Amino acid sequence: MKTYDTIIIGGGRASHLAKNIGKLGKKVALIEKSRLGGTCSNRGCVPSKLLIGYADVIRSIQGSEKHSILSKIEDIKVEKIFENNNSFIDSVDGKYKSRLNDNVDIYRGVGYFLSNNVVEVNNEKLTSDKIVIATGSSPKEPLVEGAWTSDDIFPLEKIPSSISIVGSGFIACELANVFDALGIKTKLLVRGDELLSNEDEEIQETFKKEFSKNIDIEFNTTVKDAKYKDKAFEITLESNDKSTKEYKSEALLYAIGRQSNAHSLKLGNTTIKTDERGYIKRDEFFETNAKGVYVVGDAAGEYMLQHAAAYEMNYLFKILFEDKKEPLKFKYMPHAVFTTPEIASVGLTEKQAQERNLDVVVSKTSWEASAKAEAMKLDYPFTKLIVDKNSYEILGCHIIGPQSSTMIHQVLTVMHIDNDIRHLKEMLYIHPALSETLLPAAINTIKNIEKRK
Ligand SMILES: Cc1cc2nc3c(=O)[nH]c(=O)nc-3n(C[C@H](O)[C@H](O)[C@H](O)COP(=O)(O)OP(=O)(O)OC[C@H]3O[C@@H](n4cnc5c(N)ncnc54)[C@H](O)[C@@H]3O)c2cc1C
Q1: Segment 186-200, tens digit of pLDDT
Q2: Domains of the chain, CATH where assigned
Q3: Which residue of 36, 60, 164, 312 pairs with 11 in a disulfide if CB–CB is 3.0 to 4.6 A?
């Protein structure tokens, strides 16, 4: 049996953790069953955003008429676009591997527990008093045989001429926008009548209106039946009133959520516990029910975002190797949806604030006073702030509009350093940068607070 200073199961974001521990001169076993770099770099954030880059250019050309510029897209070299994306994906494993030093032994295989501190991989037994589970999550299985999940399009081997996407969350919306923009006949199939149901309700409403202008969406529908025949799915949709509709789609992709990978770990051999969804339980120092075994990132099922996974793993490094004593408590957890339109959000929605009976002031401020926004000829963008009436603390911020994922960082900075909306009012902005739209948003909110005092 080989003894390591640290064993890491899952070489997604945790490859960086392995690298950093290796740099300390400590021996690390990094066990990865697939490709180093994990979901984010191989089949998640990065390859999807690379495709979104093309979609953004296309949307901007398609929207040029509102600037009195009549344009026509001659050709979209879809094969070349996917070729580029596929070759990026091809390069990921090697790049991650090259960053690791000799102290990190890579085991290519499925790692699982024989006991709380013994792990087996490829018939080898490894032990350590520090084991990190970073096994991430996977797409929920499609409900139809032969249908895809997001994993099947990264890399994409055969480009379909039409695709139906089941789902209403950020992955479904981002992918529908990409395929549609690239000229692939796309239909989004939504069980209820909402898109992005975790967003603030007013954001959802505007998003649905704007997003539906580009994307063909069937709401209140389910796939009753789908059979793959003659290179296409014959799909029967059933709507809420039980009426049915049939059509053909070359590809069918399910983006209906993520599931835990814990089943591969043989946790029955340990004292490690999972929650009702199958994600691994942990305490506030990331320690599972087994001493010296930690869980970070998607495997814990909490935030399911790359920046959360990265932050947790850096923090775990400090706990294990830098004597950090305080537990990690995220002050806020932002996220973005990279579609047309773009959304960025942090903290409580208005509804959540109401449900918690919080004494808040809510303000919704359009970007109409901004010259830059005016130059974009868009009338929907707005910023919504939810602020504690007594402390002026920002409890939620939701932005819909171009560059919102960048703009929200200014709000995050305030939330991070000294959370008080008045800082956003006092600071100096470059006129007429888009960020300046936060000034009227802050002024409105503060006015509303003062009216209510
Ligand atoms: C299409 C898509 C788009 C996304 N976009 C964004 C975005 O824009 N922003 C954002 O913040 N997040 C995004 N995410 C989420 C983000 O990718 C994840 O939150 C992040 O990758 C989690 O990192 P992780 O290291 O915890 O897990 P992973 O990256 O999933 O890594 C886990 C690794 O463990 C390996 N593994 C699992 N079980 C075993 C085992 N038993 N033995 C050995 N190896 C094992 C897996 O092969 C995998 O490589 C997106 C996800 C998807 C699917």
Answers
A1: 999 999 999 999 999
A2: 2-138+259-321 (3.50.50.60), 150-256 (3.50.50.60), 342-452 (3.30.390.30)
A3: 36
